[in-house]
Design goal:
By secondary structure, this protein is mainly alpha-helical. Helix 2 packs across helix 4 and helix 5 runs antiparallel to helix 6. It is about 45% helix and about 5% strand.
Length: about 300
């Protein structure tokens, strides 16, 4: 269902060698079963982990994140999501969603019975009995509403706590707090996924959707996460970062005659041969040989130093 909402698709080593190799190296270095790798064609920067067991675990990243972050930063993001899987955060989040959903279900059920079920409050009872029944029902309704609100707040607070732990786990995996900090700074304010529901955004490395007074925020502010990494992991905060210009050096050149795009080479753009092609190797400086001294010839001829 999440893939249907976000448009994620499974990629292999041939389709995304850079991303696949980074994730595989992290898993091998810690003896972790490698989850599925999925890619979303979206220019925004975000990533999340999903799944309930080893056969279902997957890490999904956006194409914008792959294009905008360098290898060390992408490795930090993958380490963050791997930590969520190692700590069982994905399963815990699903359980929290179910608990909140059950409470909200009973709250809606009571609301429909009271206000849409056509209950009669009189029924031949005395006015004091009716008042007592009304008060009890109102108290029950208020308790359900408070329980539902508290379940949502606890769920969000739990999610915020797990983000700090995932950041620390990424640094433990990669030994590079600066890469995690720069990745967070680049993702900051650029993580909105169009069409994704709030439940999906809660699983992302950054959720730009905010509530009032930070009570309903599922993620702590990027600044607080960076400050924690600087304080406890010894990282350096460069401040808000601008995204680098897209690298066009590996794009295929366009054929001026036919207008078609020639296939790109893995070693860089293809260059047509010129009329006077230059040698591939640079010119070497002349070698100065010292005066040769006559020596006794060996079995294979004269020997020179």
């Amino acid at each position: 269902m999440i893939d249907a909402v976000t448009g994620g698709r499974i990629v292999n080593r041939q389709e995304a060698p850079r991303l696949y190799n980074l994730l595989e190296n992290l898993c091998i270095s810690r003896g972790i079963a490698m989850p599925k790798l999925k890619l979303i064609d979206d220019t925004n920067l975000n990533a999340f982990a999903t799944g309930m067991n080893d056969r279902q675990y997957s890490i999904t990243v956006t194409s914008g994140l792959v294009e905008s972050l360098d290898d060390a930063e992408i490795e930090s993001v993958l380490g963050h999501e791997l930590t969520h899987i190692r700590n069982g955060d994905v399963r815990l989040l699903v359980i929290a969603v179910i608990i909140a959903g059950v409470i909200s279900f009973f709250a809606e059920l009571v609301y429909r019975l009271l206000f849409q079920g056509g209950w009669r409050w009189s029924g031949g009872r005395s006015s004091s009995d009716r008042r007592g029944s009304s008060l009890a029902l109102l108290i029950a309704l208020a308790m359900i509403a408070v329980a539902w609100l508290l379940s949502i707040v606890i769920r969000f607070a739990l999610s915020r706590r797990r983000e700090y732990l995932a950041d620390a786990g990424s640094v433990e995996l990669t030994k590079n707090p600066d890469a995690m900090i720069s990745a967070l700074r680049k993702i900051e304010g650029r993580g909105e996924l169009a069409g994704a529901t709030s439940a999906v955004m809660e699983m992302c490395i950054d959720n730009p959707r905010e509530g009032f007074s930070n009570i309903f925020d599922t993620h702590p502010p990027i600044g607080d996460r960076v400050a924690a990494l600087v304080r406890f992991a010894g990282g350096h905060d460069p401040g808000p970062l601008a995204l680098p210009e897209p690298d066009t050096s590996l794009r295929a050149p366009e054929d001026e005659t036919s207008g078609e795009v020639a296939p790109a080479s893995p070693w860089g753009p293809r260059q047509e041969a010129a009329e006077n092609p230059k040698p591939f190797l640079p010119s070497r400086p002349p070698v100065e040989l010292g005066p040769s001294e006559p020596e006794e010839p060996g079995p294979w001829g004269p020997h020179r130093s």
